[in-house]
Amino acid sequence: MSTRMQTPTQPAATELARPPEAGRKRRAVRLPEQTLARNVLITAVLALILFALSENFDPFTNLRLATVAYYFTALAGLTVLTGLNGQISLGHGALMAVGAYSTAILVGRSGLPLAAALAASAAITALVGVAVGAAASRLRGPYLAGATLAFAIGLPGLADKYPSAFGGENGLTVSPPTPPTSLGANFPLERWQAWISCACALIVFLVLANLLRSGVGRSFRAVRDDEVAAQLAGLNVARVQVLAFVVSSACAGLAGGALVVTTQLAAPGAFQLSLSLALLTGIVLGGLGSLTGALWGALALVYLPQWSDDIAHDFSLSTNVQSNLPLALYGIVLIVVIVAAPQGIQGALHGIVRRSRARLRKNPATQEGA
Amino acid sequence: MTRFIDLTLNGISNGAIYAAVALAFVLIWRATRVVNFAAGGMLMITTFVASSVISSSGSYWLGFFVALAAGLLLGAVVERLLIRRVEGGPPLNAVIVTIGLLILFEAIAGMIWSNTPRSFPPAFSIKGYTVGSHTYLFGPFDVFTVLAVVGMATALLVLFRLTDLGLMMRASAFEPVVARLQGVRVGNMLTLGWALASMAGSLAGLLIGPQVFVGPNNFDPVAIFGFTAAVLGGLDSPLGALVGGLILGLSLSYVSGYAGASLVTLAALAILVAVLMVRPSGLFTSARARRI
Questions:
Q1: Which chain A residues touch B96 with a CB distance below 8 Å?
Q2: Which CA distances in Å does A76 have to A68, A316, B194?
Q3: Of A75, A201, A217, B51, which one has the greatest count of Cβ atoms within 10 A?
Q4: Contact status of A143 with chain B (Cβ, < 8 Å)
Q5: A161 falls within a domain
Q6: Is the Cβ of A132 closer than 8 Å to some Cβ of chain B?
Q7: At A266, which helix (H) or strand (E)?
Q8: How far is Cα B18 from Cα B149, in angstroms, rounded to an integer?
């Protein structure tokens, strides 16, 4: 899956517009120069790939796909905030909770159609993002980290405080979405869930990929790189920072909604501080500030625990060691990847591609020979 | 009225513990500009060490001092082996490494000591003093808690303000290049900063252990409130850490006593946001132009 998706996304998702290189001309497929046209094309290709994958996946893998998709939705929003605008947030897990509870209440209690409920959840979370962003725009570095951390641990407390509205510890359950009858009577539920979650991810990808190449995206980066210079250039720094927080929150809210569609449950246990930390980990692990990096991060967040679980089960060990080995492997992988590849997975891949291209250009003979 | 006094005393004793953890965050932030998310894991490990030593030797004080020494050692090792590699890189990378370290420490503790929390003995009786007919929620162990934290803070203050070593450490933190030109081994000073911070954390672990029990995840709330206290006071100011810890301890004690324990985390959020909106760099950071 990963190798197939890598080629089409890479040019749009890399953060900076690279000057056209000589090596590029060799490529068989030339993508359109115009940003919107290119991103629409890439999104359509991705949609086709995801459609083909979900048709062939078993129900379990389709749920995995849905999970990767909603993680990507949240990570893409966070990487815009942290990677492109330079604001750290340890509170995105709580923002996902806002979206998740909104969807659960709108669908479960108000009976809103799912698409409308998801859109409304993104909008509600964006509103919360205005408040958080306004506070955040006054804070920098570790102080912002501290405030958003307090937000992440404080907000789930509301579910306990108002059990009648939010269902307390048990949270709110939602009945599974029903696939439209036009898809056939036997259309598997998991595939439908994967489609919904992937649709959210693709919408967010399309919007963000265009946003990053627009004036708004440039203002995000300008504020990150030098606030004083950005101000001299006529930007209202605080307003740009709030806008980045709002965009990012809307993504987190949509991701929370997709999570509810996938798990059919909005409960405080799913939105602990560990979720916020995992999201931050995901964007840095994948490669900060790049949408492709967000995809690697989402895959890592879903498959790394799974993979370390499998490894742990391959050994026959005492219960204490056995039950903690996955956690230990996860911690070790985090540390090793960050120490070995400070730019994350996307940065490392980028480096490999660039080096091999440079080698090809230096002696073309090997290319013809190969 | 007695309830108010009870809550105040309880707040002071908890505040002292938050202050010790906050001090661990501040010392590390001053030395290496890293927010050490592994702090909770490090003090958890040293408290487990203390627990093992106490149960095998039978001596509380042996375990107490072994834990403090283990804290010193652990801080130094972590800085030398890992943090040194990510210092000066993108700031988020150091954060992620400490998160990875926290996860790793919690897993290692679970492997060695199992995930089931165990009780931890206090140094002195936790039974409250009785005045008249009322038994206050404040006993000999609470007195010890406050004295131990104040003693450690005073020792650190003396070290930083009155000794050559302290001067070298401050110089390494604020002007590393100049300090190196003057012959200060900056690397060693940063390691020492981490070691002292980790020792402050391990003291907090020993003091909160009887309350929360010793388990791989049991110290997470203390670490979070300690960090909140450090941010509240200002990450550059050890005095701020103490005051921040006290403010947080008192207010959380009142909120928990008068409004219910479920509001404690929300109250911490409200206090932190209220303070940061007025002073965006914490209470005790001297006003200084933002570095660009």
A1: 280-281, 284-285, 334, 338
A2: 12, 39, 34
A3: A75
A4: yes
A5: yes
A6: no
A7: strand A265-266
A8: 10
- pLDDT confidence bin for B288, thresholds 50/70/90: low
Give CA–CA dist A327/A307, Å, rounded. 11
Mutate to test the interface with B, among A320, A323, A333, A343 (most CBs of B within 10 A): A320
Q: Which two tokens stand for residue B34?
A: 């890293």
Write the CA distances from B194 to A132, B118, B276, integer angstroms.
33, 28, 26
Distances (CA, A) of A184 to A62, A114, A181: 18, 19, 5
H-helix or E-strand spanning residue A314: helix A291-314
Residue A209 resides in a domain: yes
Hey, what's the torsion of the CAs at B74, B76, B107, B121, to 10 degrees? Answer: 20
Q: For chain A, what is the domain count?
A: 1
State the average pLDDT over residues A322-344: 88
Q: What's the predicted TM-score (pTM) here?
A: 0.87
Q: Is residue A297 part of a domain?
A: yes
What is the model's pLDDT at position A16? 46
Our CA-based measurement puts residue A283 at a distance from the nearest CA of chain B, in whole angstroms, of 10
Q: Which fold has domain B2-114+136-278?
A: ABC transporter involved in vitamin B12 uptake, BtuC (1.10.3470)
Return d(Cα A150, Cα A213) in angstroms, integer: 33
Q: Does residue A9 fall inside a structural domain?
A: no
Q: Where are the domains of chain B?
A: 2-114+136-278
